[in-house]
């Protein structure tokens, strides 16, 4: 039997860890730059200059189940029937003749292609104004303290090279939303697609995955 005197110490250890982490991260969170502007934003980054979609279906379109569309769903939006529903022939079950969405699908039928000129509405036909950003473009647009963080993607998974470690700040991120990852337009392999985190890491995960912290944002030149 565990001695009674040992229980408080063991129970207190996680609390001490949480306190230490909070003490380290809280000042960063409280000083994040957020101008509250959720309109379309022109962001000049490192070797990239793009306009990012405003609040609406082109930027973290929250679904009834509480999360955001998967990479797979975003890529296949324009496949009949147009929308985020499951599409015939596109499932991860090869035995049923299915397949994952590909980079070609993302270019040809992605949700971003259907955004109106102002980025606030989805049209029934492709508009070809907006698109999904590449991994390098998201990385190059990351910022900190209102300035570009000088990040460059080397094509490898993990933290990117940055002059300053970026943070979850506007105009690229919405600090009042749970999203801390953005999908990019590219596949890592058949099953996984790239995403970029607010602090400068580029990784890949299951294309049909999705959770309240995994979002996206369309761009235009």
What does this structure look like?
With 221 residues, the protein is α+β, with helices and mostly antiparallel strands. It has one domain (32-220). The protein contains four helices and ten strands. It has helices at residues 7-30, 71-75, 103-109, 135-141, and strands at 41-44, 49-52, 143-144, 147-148, 158-159, 181-187, 192-197, 201-206, 214-215, 219-220. Strands 5-8-7-6-9 form a five-stranded mixed sheet. The protein has a three-stranded antiparallel sheet with strand order 1-2-10, with no helix packed on it.
Strand fraction equals 15-25%
Strand order of the largest sheet: 5-8-7-6-9
Structure summary, number of beta strands = 10
Instruction: Detail the poorly predicted runs.
Output: 1-11, 13-27
Count of spatially separate domains: 1
Order of SSEs, N→C? HEEHHHEEEEEEEE
Overall residue-averaged pLDDT value = 87
Radius of gyration: 20 Å
Main sheet specs: 5 strands, mixed
Gross morphology: globular
Q: Please, what is the oligomeric state? A: single chain
Q: Helix amount, in percent?
A: 10-25%
What is the structural class? alpha+beta
Measured between the Cα atoms of the first and last residue, the distance is: 67 Å
Instruction: Count every helix, treating DSSP H or I runs of 4 or more residues as helices.
Output: 4
């Amino acid at each position: 039997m565990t001695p009674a005197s040992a229980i408080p110490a063991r129970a207190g250890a996680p609390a001490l860890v949480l306190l230490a982490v909070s003490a380290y991260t809280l000042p960063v969170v409280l000083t994040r730059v957020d101008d509250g502007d959720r309109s379309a934003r022109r962001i000049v980054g490192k070797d990239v200059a793009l306009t990012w979609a405003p609040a609406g279906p082109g930027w973290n379109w929250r679904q009834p189940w509480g999360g955001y569309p998967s990479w797979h769903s975003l890529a296949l939006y324009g496949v009949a029937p147009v929308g985020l529903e499951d599409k015939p022939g596109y499932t991860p079950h090869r035995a049923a003749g299915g397949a994952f969405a590909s980079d070609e699908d993302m270019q040809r039928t992605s949700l971003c292609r259907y955004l109106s000129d102002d980025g606030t509405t989805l049209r029934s036909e492709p508009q070809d104004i907006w698109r999904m950003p590449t991994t390098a473009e998201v990385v190059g647009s990351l910022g900190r303290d209102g300035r570009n963080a000088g990040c460059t993607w080397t094509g490898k998974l993990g933290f990117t090279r940055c002059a300053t470690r970026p943070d979850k700040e506007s105009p690229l991120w919405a600090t009042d939303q749970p999203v801390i990852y953005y999908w990019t337009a590219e596949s890592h392999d058949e099953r996984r697609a790239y995403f970029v985190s607010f602090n400068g890491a580029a990784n890949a995960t299951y294309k049909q995955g999705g959770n309240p912290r995994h979002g996206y944002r369309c761009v235009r030149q």
